[in-house]
Structures are given as C-alpha cells and as structure tokens.
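Could you help me review a protein record that somebody else here produced? Here is the record exactly as it was handed to me:
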Amino acid sequence: MRVLIVGAGGHAEVVADALRASVASAAADIELVGFADDAPSLWGKPLAGVSVLGSVRDALAHPHDAVVVAIGNNSARRHMMRALAGDGESFATIIHPSATVAPDVRWAPGSVILAGAVLNPGVTLGRGVIVNTCASVDHHSHVADYAHVAPGVHTGGEVSIGEGALIGVGASIVPRCKIGAWAIVGAGATVICDIPAHSTVVGTPARIIRQREEPS
C-alpha cells in the first residue's frame, strides 16, 4: 500500500518513523510516497528521507492508495480529514510495532498508534485518533474521533474520551470518567471525575480553569 502523509511537521516525522518501523518488522506492507503540506517554505525539502511533494492538492496527484493525516492539532486534523474524505480519499491506520494492542481492539480509519503505546482489551478508537508515545488506554475505554492521547498518558478502565479532546502529556484519568468533546486536560493532571465538553482542566485533582466555544 502506497501512503501519502499529509502534514510535514514534527508529528508527521514521528508518524513516518512508525510507518517505517512497521515495514521493517514485516508488520505491514507500506510504501511512504512522501509528505504534503500547504506551507510553501516546506516544499521540496527532505523529511524522514523522502520529499515534501508540495501542497496537499498537488501531492494528491502522485500515485497513492491511502493517506494518513499527521497534523497534531485536533481541529485542523478533523477539517483536513473531512475535506479529503469528501474527495474520496482512503485513510491508512499506522501502528508502531512496539505498541501493545489487544486482539479485540477496534479502530476507525486514519488513527495512529505510536511507539510503546498500550491498548488493552475492549478499547475502541474513532477516526483520526492519536495514541501517542508510551500512552496507555485501559480496558473497555473509548476514544472518539480526532482525540489525542498525548505521550505518557494513562487511563483507567471504562474511560470515555470525547471527540477532539486533548489529554496532555503525562495526565492520568481514573476509571469510568468521561472527558467531554473538545475538552483539554493539562499536562500531568489527574482526572478523578467527569470533565464537561469544551473545558480546560489542570492540576491534581483536575479543576476547570476555562470554558471554550466548539471549534468550527
């Protein structure tokens, strides 16, 4: 399968590393076509040993079978994936071979599961989810579309993470908590109760410091 990575920042390079590692371990038969990014300053530059082919529209003209949207911002990733889906693009899911993924874990297209991540039995992931380096999602938890579980996050069992939510680096969520859509859990926070949608929480125990509008 020939895969085009949309995005050419640091997260895209990490996704490319996961893709290459999966090929090297014979876990997947994938060829990295190149990167696409709408920032002209990146066009033609090498990244992870291949080129940034040009704008997203131009890069899509290169032969490929699927894309993976490697944009760390959840709202921007949602916008791009919706646009590409409207154009009929298919989405690849990238899983680093060092990730531990239970046999019954289910994911929608376009998710990325990075090095050292752990997904335990009964976990489900929506579209375009990021489970980042050494994060763990415990049994029967659900991570909804476009959410990002950042490096070093640990959730208990039966946790629900809403659409577009960001769980910051090193945060912990106790079992059966619900994180609302587009909420932000600050780095190192400890969540011990449900978090409303569109809120930002920090600290141990986590407390609300801001409410926001839903992204467009």
Remarks:
- The CA atoms of residues 35 and 52 lie 5 Å apart.
